[in-house]
Specification:
The protein has helices spanning 21-44, 48-80, 84-106, 114-142, 147-165. The protein is an all-alpha fold. It has one domain (21-165): Four Helix Bundle (Hemerythrin (Met), subunit A), CATH 1.20.120.520. α2 (48-80) packs antiparallel against α3 and α2 (48-80) packs antiparallel against α5. The longest helix is centred in the middle third of the chain and has 33 residues, at 48-80.
Length: 166
Amino acid sequence: MPTSKTKTTKPAASSPAGQNAIDLLINDHKKVKKLFKEFEKRAKADDTDGKVEIARQICEELTIHAMVEEELFYPTAREFIKDQDMFNEAEVEHASAKDLIAQIEEMDGDEEMYDATVKVLSEYIEHHVTEEEEEMFPKVRKSKLDLNELGTQLAERKEELMSATA
């Protein structure tokens, strides 16, 4: 875990993702937000196969994102930020999202509750992302956490997880 007391916020050239930890996580948020919008379009068009494929991508992206946050980002940031309630709440939100992801993965795309379940997941994620980006990330940016070093670790772990699911 990065424990450097040097504050750095510019992307590290050695980072596989070429960005710091927070930038990497924000890019994940943007990608999933676009996928949720695409899901809505497919659902409105009665494109069952298309919406199921998009939902699968959403579930995969969120699962990997949650894993890197829980394994690396949260534990490291907890060392620098003393607001443990904020991190605890984020982890509870992850647990709720994982429950919805599991439900979606077990459902058929033409089931009556499928679209509603994806919609609720979208709302949970929107709330979670807002809290991270408006509360957690600003506090972490102000800390002495080496975001470039952590960004490298996050990117490498994401790559491992993506390769394992491919």
